[in-house]
Every structure is written in structure tokens, then in C-alpha cells.
């Protein structure tokens, strides 16, 4: 049994950014254009966003792969996004399950990242470019997750930047890993809440249920 550290009914936490629902995956688009051909921007699309999409779509396939997306996403210290974070973003916004991101899906992903950047800047009090200790606790608490010091330490150790020799990322959690950490905490908490039907912060589950909850996390 485990005691949850999430808000009880009646408490109103600050809401982290949520992905904007994409197009219904039942209505699949026709096969894409020939390799190397860059189609014109969709009607009503943001010209600047379309330019960014086109610059990321290096092979001019009309869609973005995991590798292309990772090469385009950087943290404030110019380090590339962690591959696991990129895969998580792909799984959220690849609504048609094609394995790539089209322009419509990219537009939702771009807004999602922009919203998270605003959250990150808000809690990066010392403007170090990373989230540490008290900043992490404040961010998660604002989302409604009052975690114990032991859990906070585990999260910080798990998602802190990898050690690097010479010039490397600052200590703490960089933007990309901060997003993934918050999404994982949110996903696990929601899975716990689905089992905690009486909302007392305690559950009793089987080993199989436990493994399903853990392995379903991003």
C-alpha cells in the first residue's frame, strides 16, 4: 500500500500545460508527396511556424522523424533534448500513429513546448537554466503534487543533467528533462488516483497492476 501525495478534492492546483487534441486518427491523410518535394503551406497556417516546420523537415518528406525533431530542439544552454523526452513528445503528438509528426501535429507540439517554457522560466528563480531542489518542489506543489523530500530527491537525481567533463550542462534539471519529469509524475499520479477510488491516499494492488502502472509511464 502506498500513501499518495496529491491534492484532495476541493484543492485547486496550478495546471501544467496540456497537449491540444490532434486530428481524429480514424481520418488518415492520403500518402505523402514524393521524396524531396516540399508542399506549399496549408491554408490558414502560420507562415513563421510553417517555416520552422520546413527547416526541421530536412528530407522534405512533409513530416518530421524522431531524429529530425531531436536535432531541432535545444535547451537554453544549447544542449540537444534528451532522446527519451523527444520520444515522449512524439508519442503524445503523433495522433495518427504514423511514427512521424505532420504540420498539424507539429503546431500542437510547438504550442505545448512554448507553454512549458513559460512554466520553466517562472520556476527557474535564479535564472540558472535548470531546476533544482526548492524550485522543483515549488513547481510540483503548484501542480498539486506535495511530495516528500525523499521522493523529490529521487526525482532530482533521476532527471538531473548527465555529468559532463569540462563545460557541460548546469547542475539540476534542464528544460527537456523537467518537462518529462512533470509528465511522468502527472501520469503516475493519475494512474494511482484511478485505483484510489475512495481518495484516502492509500491503495492495495497486485504485482501485475503495479507493473502495468510503472511500465505505462512515459
From TrEMBL:
Renumbered residue ranges of the record's region Disordered: 1-48
List locations, semicolon-separated: Cytoplasm
Q: Name one Pfam family in it.
A: EF-hand_7
Do you know which PROSITE patterns this protein is assigned to? EF_HAND_1, EF_HAND_2
The record's InterPro entries line, in alphabetical order, gives: EF-hand-dom_pair, EF_Hand_1_Ca_BS, EF_hand_dom, Peflin/Sorcin_CaBP
- Alphabetized GO MF terms: calcium ion binding; calcium-dependent protein binding
Stretches of Pro residues bias are at: 14-24, 31-45
Record's keyword terms, sorted:
Calcium, Cytoplasm, Metal-binding, Repeat
Occurrences of domain EF-hand (ranges): 44-79, 111-146, 183-218
- SMART domains noted in UniProt: EFh
Instruction: Please provide one cellular component term from the Gene Ontology annotations of this protein.
Output: cytoplasm
Among PANTHER family, the record links this protein to: GH27120P (PTHR46212:SF3), PEFLIN (PTHR46212)
What protein name does the entry list? EF-hand domain-containing protein
